[in-house]
Amino acid sequence: MDQNPALTYTAFLKGQRLATGPLHEVAVAVLRAQQSQPDENPLVFNNATGQSADLDLRGDEEAVAARYTRAAPAQPPKGRGRPKLGVTAREVTLLPEHWDWLAAQAGGASVALRKLVHEARRKDSGADQLRQARDRAYNAMSTLAGDLAGFEEAARALFAGDQQRLLAQMAAWPQDIQAYVLQLAEPAPG
Length: 190
What we know:
Shape: flat
Strand content: 5-15%
Order of helices and strands: EEHEHHHHHH
Helix content: 40-55%
Number of helices: 7
Oligomer: single chain
Structural class: mainly alpha
Number of strands: 3
Strand order of the largest sheet: 2-1-3
């Protein structure tokens, strides 16, 4: 997928990929599909999570596109922290002995917490990305293929990391569903 998955969606109609892209483009494609096939219900998925998305398709294409066009984020009110550096002040609740330990660290509590977070992210990033990818793929797979033959075994294979068994269990599924599940099952780069 060439686009940032956090900002893209994919729609399916009767097991076939209908559209992939920014939400406003996918919403218009879904509106057109519903207008041409009113008895069918397209399914829309957030590519970052694999969760299905409900769309408000009232109005014409322009109204639907406008509803889902990303507006520039509003400027947050100026407050504490160092906004030019991207630092945001938030509340952290710790026990007194934790605060004592943090206060004794070189650079203080903020520096010590940042170092701990960086170390944890570096150490666990591969496992976290793999878990997120499997969850994302399962979310979409359960909606798209939950009633298809081999679903339960495919889910077991997905969580076991057994790609060959997953492919074998999905072999009878529509090609677009297979491709989408495999796409979502890939850990995000970075």
